UniProtKB/TrEMBL annotation:
GO BP terms, alphabetized: anaerobic cobalamin biosynthetic process
Gene this protein is translated from: cbiK_2
Keyword entries, A-Z: Cobalt, Lyase, Metal-binding
EC number of the protein: 4.99.1.3
Catalytic residues as annotated in Swiss-Prot or TrEMBL: H162 (proton acceptor)
UniProt GO molecular function: metal ion binding; sirohydrochlorin cobaltochelatase activity
Entry-linked Gene3D superfamilies: 3.40.50.1400
Composition bias type Basic residues, residue spans: 278-296
Official protein name in the record: Sirohydrochlorin cobaltochelatase
Name of the top EC class for this enzyme: lyase
Length: 296
């Protein structure tokens, strides 16, 4: 429940994601993180926003109302909130993250200040360990280890990311390099709508003489993409293509939002955003101490 605050101390956190119309996975992956943020930041009111208009429309048809990022900030402005932090649950800083970044910049640089303070946190994969910044990839890989099956030498894990045309799609290739550097040579990354494609991964699996593959969504939620593009029965799904290529296939049908260590990363990103004031391009990452292993 939201607590009443006087105007001078009204502080809010908007937890913003692409969203999902799958009610069960919404509770397991998004609501769980929202609740963890509430537990860690009890002095803040926590609100939900989705960036996908399509998902919002589908939910509205079922009688469920969710604000988009514009509506969420307008509502906070109308209610007199002065300090606002937005924590995205996006995996990479792609097109959906850009929507929020542009909006926050508009509020931050407007002549008439709607909020005394407004800041944007970073998605799961952003900083790469340069200078004194944390390595978000290393931290995410350590969190991922908690859900990986044992490596028996003849098996592999194939992670499905979303991907797209945005330059941030390159994050998946960085992740692949860093998985290899971390010693996880049996974990491969492909994307539904970008690079690397699945056929490239299948070639790698054959070269390594892999027999068994575990498919795993590298997505916040196990929703439409996981159900259809990854684990569906259509011949173009990842599962069907891998079976056709001669592999035995298991499916790990859980979004990243169900992983407690991943949840802690989002909490730590938010904590860094609140603790470190913006300064050029350095504000997105904050300092590395306390976050090297995804501690919240």
């Amino acid at each position: 429940m939201e607590q009443e605050q006087n105007n001078s101390s009204k502080k809010a956190i908007v937890v913003v994601s692409f969203g999902t119309s799958y009610q069960d996975t919404l509770k397991l992956n998004i609501e769980t993180i929202e609740n963890k943020i509430r537990d860690n930041f009890p002095e803040y009111v926590v609100r939900r926003a989705f960036t996908s208009r399509t998902v919002i429309k589908r939910l509205a048809a079922d009688g469920v109302r969710v604000d988009n990022e514009i509506q969420a900030l307008k509502r906070l402005q109308d209610e007199g909130y002065q300090e606002v932090y937005l924590q995205p649950l996006h995996v990479v800083a792609g097109a959906e993250y850009e929507k929020i970044k542009v909006l926050v910049a508009h509020y931050a640089h407007a002549q008439e200040k709607a909020f005394e303070k407004i800041r944007l946190g970073r998605p799961l994969l952003y900083c790469m360990g340069q200078e004194d910044h944390p390595d978000d990839y290393e931290i995410a890989i350590n969190a991922l280890r908690t859900q990986l099956p044992a490596d028996d030498g003849a098996s592999a894990v194939v992670l499905m990311g979303h991907g797209g045309m945005h330059p941030a799609n390159a994050a998946y290739s960085v992740l692949q390099l860093k998985l290899k550097d971390a010693g996880l040579k049996n974990v491969f990354v492909y994307t539904v709508e970008g690079f690397p494609p699945l056929n490239r991964i299948i070639d790698n699996l054959k070269q390594q003489q892999v027999k068994k593959v575990t498919l795993m969504p590298f997505l916040l939620v196990a929703g439409d993409h996981a159900t259809n593009d990854m684990a569906g029965d259509e011949e173009d799904s990842a599962k069907s293509q891998l079976l056709a290529a001669g592999f035995s296939v298991d499916v790990y049908f859980h979004g990243l939002g169900e992983n407690a260590a991943i949840q802690d990363i989002y909490v730590s990103h938010l904590r860094a955003t609140i603790a470190h004031p913006p300064h050029g391009h350095r504000h997105a990452c904050g300092k590395s101490h306390g976050h090297r292993h995804g501690q919240s």
